[in-house]
Specification:
Elements: E1 2-3, H1 12-21, E2 26-31, H2 46-57, E3 61-63, E4 83-88, E5 95-99, E6 110-114, H3 134-144, H4 154-174, H5 190-208, H6 212-242
Parallel strand pairs: 1-2
Antiparallel strand pairs: 2-4, 3-4, 5-6
Helix pairs in contact: 1-2, 3-4, 5-6
């Protein structure tokens, strides 16, 4: 797990040193406090740009739901993606990442699962989209293209074309983030979203005026939100069993 506090300058070399300290294989998940469109953020920050460069240079993979993970207490600030996972030397097709509905804090918890078998997804309808990292794509194509093959017969040419096509497809998919279409999207009810907004306002008030009364109010609304979410999950599970 990782927590990169906001406000601190983290250089490219800092990121490089951190990831190298994790060894030959790793899953580094947590709060990076870094924004970049590569993992679904709405904007690109300085830290996000530096982190993305470290990821690209080392051909790491990013696991992200593409959905907001941070819900600022300041209602004038928009929720965004700053929590995700970075993976090295592990089969990306064996991972599944989802959001948890436990909204007791201002961060949405993420659940990362690693399966012994590849996770089945609906195949992407396109090779690339706006998230495609073309530098990673170029590197993967160069690494996996075999130019030392004979082209003397029609069969040789056909096999070479098939191999190149596969290389291009796999490089494009490995360099692009696709939504997991086989998982049912859970729509959070309006009354829960309203409760979340109410909690954000109460928390913002407590952070400005840390009185015992405001703290008591925050604890009360936090407990109510937890109970509301728990009841909702219980009802959804009962409906699933009865269907």
């Amino acid at each position: 797990a990782i927590y990169a506090p906001p406000g601190q300058k983290i250089t490219l070399q800092n990121w490089q040193d951190h990831f190298q300290s994790l060894g030959d294989k790793f899953i580094s998940a947590g709060d990076y406090n870094a924004k970049h469109t590569t993992w679904g953020s709405k904007i690109i920050t300085t830290r996000g740009r530096t982190l993305e460069e470290a990821i690209r240079r080392n051909s790491y993979n990013v696991l992200s739901t593409g959905k907001p993970t941070h819900w600022p207490t300041d209602i004038n600030k928009k929720p965004d993606v700053i929590d995700f996972a970075i993976v090295k030397a592990l089969n990306i097709n064996k991972f599944n990442i989802t959001s948890s509905l436990d909204l007791s804090s201002d961060h949405t918890p993420l659940i990362v699962k690693y399966s012994s078998k590849p996770v089945c997804y609906n195949p992407p309808t396109t090779l690339c989209n706006k998230t495609t990292n073309w530098e990673t794509f170029k590197t993967l194509v160069e690494q996996n293209t075999n130019c030392n093959i004979p082209l003397k017969t029609p069969e040789d040419i056909e096999q070479a074309v098939a191999a190149l096509t596969t290389t291009i497809q796999e490089a494009a998919w490995a360099s692009t983030s696709f939504r997991q279409l086989n998982t049912q999207k859970r729509k959070i009810p309006t009354y829960i979203l309203d409760k979340i907004k109410e909690k954000r306002k109460v928390k913002a008030k407590w952070q400005k005026h840390k009185t015992s009364e405001n703290k008591k109010h925050l604890n009360k609304i936090t407990k109510e939100l937890k109970n509301t979410i728990r009841d909702y999950n219980d009802d959804e599970f009962k409906k699933f069993l009865e269907s």
